[in-house]
Amino acid sequence: MKLIAALKDSSALSGLRIDSIKSAITKFPPSVQERAGELYLLINVDSTKQKERLETLLASLKDGDVRRGQVVFNSTKAACAACHPFGYLGGNVGPDLTKIGGIRQERDLLEAIIFPSASFVRSFEPVVVATHAARLSMVY
User: Fold this and answer.
1) Where would I find the H helices in 61-105?
2) What 3-state DSSP class applies to 85?
3) 107 and 119 in contact (C-beta within 8 Å)?
4) pTM (2 decimals)?
5) Rounded CA gap, 54 and 51, in Å?
């Protein structure tokens, strides 16, 4: 119950995925699983707001500019290149984005930029690893 309460009050609520929470909650008693329903409703409300925001932004977008996109991708503020490879540049932790424009729609690309934690490519989901020393670290 404390986990559900903490998640409901978390500042990262918008980054939570219902499917991930459901799989983690299945080992808890039914009373906890029922309480998680409140959390799922909050997450759905947040995703509805995200969808509305995306639609507003899509309506106001002009044609893309590859050069400006490269500047943003490689900037230290956005830090995309720290994880994602693009061509021969970038990290090797996230999925390769070299051909992303040919396989994803404009809406999908905008969502990935505006709400990067909304969805993950299979095998690139974040996981938490607990060591023998009981320290936690995030692994991507």
Assistant:
1) 66-74, 100-103
2) strand
3) no
4) 0.59
5) 5
